[in-house]
Specification:
548 residues, alpha/beta, Rossmann fold, 16% strand
Length: 548
C-alpha cells in the first residue's frame, strides 16, 4: 500500500500544479505509477508501445501545451529508449517529467532480469535527478516536496525549463490500493538566481541599422515588437512573422554590401542557414544578446554583451533606422512575387514547392506545423512564406529522431501538419503504430520522397566520393513504398506529384480525424541541388536588377 500511496501522492501534487498529459509505455515494474495515473480523471493517458516514440510524443504534447508532460516507462532498456528525447528536451528547453520504474537495490548486481543501472542514466541532460528508493510510510512527508521539486525544475523556476528524471524503485507485489494521502503543505518556489545583467531599458540603438537574428524560443509577440521598432528580423523555421527569403538574399554580394547593419541583436536559438552564419562571422559586428526569450545560442562566440529583458516598442531608444528595414522588406517582397509566378508555372512538384505549399496550408488553416530536420527545415526557412501559426522543429539536437511522434503529440486535440523526409518517416515508423492513439485530432504528415538523405547531396561527400559509395553510406535510398507502409498501419495515405494534388490531399486530411500520410514525389536529389542553385542565381539577378 505504501507504493500505491506514494505514486498517488506524486500525481496528486502534479495535477494540482497543472499536469494534464501522461504518456505511458506498458511494463510490469511501473504498475504502481500507471495505475495511479489511470485513477485520475483530470489526466489524459496516451499509451505508446515503443518507448522512444513515447518520449517524442510527450515532447510534442509539451511543445503544444507549454506545460510539463509526464512519461512513464518500466525498467531496463525501456529507460534507455528515452535517452534521445531527453537530449532533445534538454537542448530545446522542453519540460518533461521522465519517470523510470526500477528494481529495488537488492536486485541489482545479482543477475535479475530487466535490471540495469538507471541512476543518473541521463547524466547532465536533466535539470534534476531524484532517486528516493522504495516507498516507506515513515518518509511520506517527503513525497509531496519530491513531486514539487521535480515540477518546478522542469518548468524552469530554478534553471532553464527542461527534463527532470525520477527513478522510482518498486518491490513486489506491485498491485495495491492507496490509503489516505499525506497532507499538502505550502509550495516551495525555487527561484532562478538573478542574472545581474543590465536591463534592456539601458540599451540605446536609436536610428541605427539593426539586424535581429532569432530562433527557437522566440514568440510571435516578441517578433512583432521587433518589427514595430524597425528591426529586421531573420528567423529560423519556427519563427512566426520573420522576414522570408533571407538566405537567398544573403547569397547576393551586392545586396550584402547594401545591408551591412550597424549592430546585430540575438534572441533564442540559431537559424539553419549556413550562409547567414558565415555572413555574421564575416561582418564581425557588435552583437548584443537579449536574455528575455531564454538561452541565447552563440556557437561562433560573436556576442559582445548581454542585456536582460525583451524589446518593447514604447521605448524610444530602441527605435531603429526605418529605411534600413524597408530595404530588406522590398527585397523580400520582390522574391515573393517571383516565387508566386514560378509556382504557377510549375506542373510538377519539387522540394521547395512542397515546403511552400505546406506552410501556406498551415497559414490558411491555422494548423500547427512540425518541420523535420535536414532539407525540410531548410526549405521552410529559405523558400517558404513567413509562418503565421505555431511552428515546431526538434532543433535542440537537430536529429531526425522521433519527428513523426512529435507531430502526433502536437496534433492531439487539435490539427497539425508535419513535413518530413522519407528517411525521417522510416526512422520513426513505430510512431505509426499508434497514430493519434485514443486522442482526437487531425494530423497530416507530408513526406518528401526524394529516395534518400537529401541534405548530403549539398555536402562535400557528394562530390568527393564515387557515386556508388556515396549512395551506400550517405544517400542511403530505401525501396519501401511509403504509401503502402502508412496504409499497412491503418492510416489514410496517398501519393501526389503536382501542387494541386498536394493541396487537395492536405485539405482532405485536415478535415478528417486521425493521421493522413501524403507522399510527395519529387525529382532526384541531384536535380534538387541544381534547382536550389538556379533559384538562388535567379534571386541574385532579381535583386541586382531591382537596384539598377
Amino acid at each position: 500500500m505504501a507504493q500505491a500511496t506514494f505514486a498517488a501522492t506524486l500525481f496528486d501534487e502534479w495535477i494540482e500544479a497543472g499536469l494534464r498529459d501522461v504518456v505511458i509505455s506498458p511494463g510490469s515494474r511501473s504498475t504502481p505509477l500507471v495505475l495511479a495515473a489511470a485513477q485520475r480523471e483530470e489526466l489524459t493517458l496516451h499509451v505508446r508501445l515503443d518507448e522512444r516514440s513515447a518520449g517524442f510524443f510527450a515532447l510534442g504534447r509539451a511543445l503544444a501545451t507549454k506545460t510539463p508532460v509526464a512519461v512513464i516507462v518500466t525498467s531496463g532498456t525501456a529507460a534507455t529508449e528515452l535517452h534521445a528525447c531527453v537530449a532533445e528536451a534538454d537542448l530545446a528547453f522542453v519540460p518533461l517529467i521522465v519517470v523510470t520504474a526500477d528494481r529495488p537495490p537488492e536486485l541489482h548486481g545479482v543477475g535479475a532480469a530487466q535490471t540495469i543501472e538507471q541512476g543518473r542514466l541521463y547524466g547532465e541532460m536533466v535539470r534534476l535527478f531524484e532517486e528516493p528508493g522504495v516507498a516507506r510510510y515513515d518518509l511520506a512527508s517527503s513525497w509531496r516536496p519530491l513531486a514539487n521539486r521535480l515540477w518546478h525544475f522542469a518548468t524552469g523556476e530554478s534553471l532553464a525549463a527542461g527534463p527532470v528524471h525520477l527513478n522510482a524503485a518498486f518491490v513486489e507485489p506491485l498491485m495495491g490500493t492507496p490509503v489516505e494521502l499525506p497532507e499538502r503543505e505550502s509550495v516551495v518556489v525555487f527561484r532562478a538566481p538573478d542574472e545581474h545583467l543590465p536591463d534592456v531599458a539601458t540599451f540605446d540603438v536609436a536610428g541605427q541599422s539593426v539586424l535581429c537574428v532569432v530562433g527557437r524560443g522566440v514568440s510571435k509577440e516578441v517578433i512583432d515588437e521587433c518589427h514595430q521598432l524597425d528591426w529586421v528580423v531573420l528567423g529560423d523555421a519556427t519563427a512566426q512573422g520573420s522576414l522570408a527569403y533571407f538566405d537567398a538574399l544573403l547569397r547576393c554580394d551586392d545586396f550584402v554590401e547594401r545591408v551591412r547593419p550597424d549592430l546585430v541583436v540575438r534572441l533564442g536559438g540559431v537559424p539553419a542557414s549556413k550562409v547567414l552564419a558565415d555572413q555574421l562571422r564575416a561582418w564581425n559586428l557588435r552583437t548584443v544578446a537579449l536574455s528575455g526569450a531564454g538561452f541565447v545560442a552563440d556557437p561562433d562566440h560573436l556576442i559582445h554583451e548581454t542585456y536582460a529583458g525583451l524589446p518593447h516598442h514604447d521605448y524610444a531608444p530602441l527605435k531603429a533606422n526605418h529605411d534600413y528595414a524597408a530595404t530588406w522588406r522590398r527585397a523580400s517582397d520582390d522574391v515573393a512575387t517571383w516565387l508566386e509566378t514560378a509556382e504557377r508555372d510549375e506542373s510538377v512538384l519539387n522540394e521547395p514547392l512542397v515546403a511552400r505549399a505546406v506552410v501556406a496550408a498551415s497559414n490558411a488553416s491555422g494548423a500547427a506545423l512540425v518541420v523535420g530536420s535536414s532539407m525540410p527545415v531548410r526549405d521552410v526557412e529559405w523558400w517558404a512564406p513567413s509562418r503565421e501559426c505555431a511552428t515546431y522543429a526538434n532543433r535542440g539536437v537537430n536529429g531526425i529522431d522521433g519527428v513523426v511522434s512529435t507531430a502526433l503529440g502536437v496534433a492531439v486535440g487539435s490539427k497539425a501538419l508535419g513535413l518530413v523526409g522519407d528517411l525521417t518517416m522510416l526512422h520513426d515508423v513505430s510512431g505509426l503504430v499508434e497514430g493519434l492513439g485514443n486522442g482526437r485530432g487531425s494530423c497530416v504528415l507530408v513526406v518528401v520522397d526524394n529516395r534518400g538523405g537529401g541534405i548530403f547531396s549539398f555536402l562535400p561527400q557528394a562530390s568527393d566520393l564515387e557515386s556508388d559509395r556515396f549512395e551506400l553510406l550517405f544517400g542511403t535510398p530505401r525501396p519501401h513504398d511509403l504509401e503502402v507502409v502508412a496504409s499497412a498501419f491503418g492510416h489514410s495515405s496517398s501519393t501526389v506529384r503536382t501542387l494541386d494534388e498536394l493541396r487537395n490531399a492536405i485539405e482532405k486530411g485536415l478535415s478528417s480525424d486521425g493521421l493522413s500520410v501524403v507522399v510527395a514525389k519529387v525529382p532526384s536529389r541531384k536535380e534538387n541541388v541544381t534547382l536550389h542553385q538556379e533559384w538562388n542565381d535567379h534571386v541574385t539577378q532579381l535583386v541586382n536588377k531591382g537596384n539598377a
